[in-house]
């Protein structure tokens, strides 16, 4: 038996050492997280002029005197885009939850409002039009399309969850991709929008939403009519 381990002083020392190490590790991670955020913010500010690339990320590190921190971005500029969309989700979540539920009684109103928040977030950046153009150009490259699509899907998942959607069937995907198509088409419009507060883009977006709703109503009407049509010809569907 180790006599030191049996001594209360030993146990107290080990416990204190563990607390110090835990505190040091936590502080180190916090510092590293702040550093990554600073670099990501700097890279985003450079995107309107330099585009979305690892070269932009390296330049951001260089400007902040943190050249060695480039290695902390294991997926390169993709990590910065993930950060951008995580911040977007955080923004719309806080903004949406600050409103009274009675202000947006219907799901369609909630989704429309959340998509509006997404557009306004993009429009809030300096040189927002050029920033959106850079991100869209990045997404058009074949090896980046899936990355961008997954990020948009993640945002749309947050939108529908905040709106109260809890579907687990195939509509889970169709709702998110439909909202995503409205969002992406609105981003394309935003890239050309010179109106104040992106008002033209918001009008465009709401028209797209109304079109989707009208199409859904038409589809439901057609679905209800089909049995009647087949009944005329005495055709069974089962």
From TrEMBL:
Organism of provenance: Anaplasma centrale (strain Israel)
Job description of the protein: Membrane-associated protein that warps the membrane surface to access and bind aromatic isoprenes with high specificity, including ubiquinone (CoQ) isoprene intermediates and presents them directly to COQ7, therefore facilitating the COQ7-mediated hydroxylase step. Participates in the biosynthesis of coenzyme Q, also named ubiquinone, an essential lipid-soluble electron transporter for aerobic cellular respiration.
Keywords, sorted A to Z: Lipid-binding, Transit peptide, Ubiquinone biosynthesis
Pfam families: COQ9 (PF08511)
InterPro entries (UniProt xref): COQ9_C, Ubiq_biosynth_COQ9
Protein name: COQ9 domain containing protein
Signal peptide: none
GO biological process: ubiquinone biosynthetic process
Pathway field: Cofactor biosynthesis; ubiquinone biosynthesis
Keyword check for S-adenosyl-L-methionine: no
Keyword Ribosomal protein recorded: no
UniProt record similarity statement: Belongs to the COQ9 family.
Molecular function terms, GO-annotated: lipid binding
COQ9 C-terminal domain mapped to chain residues: 149-215
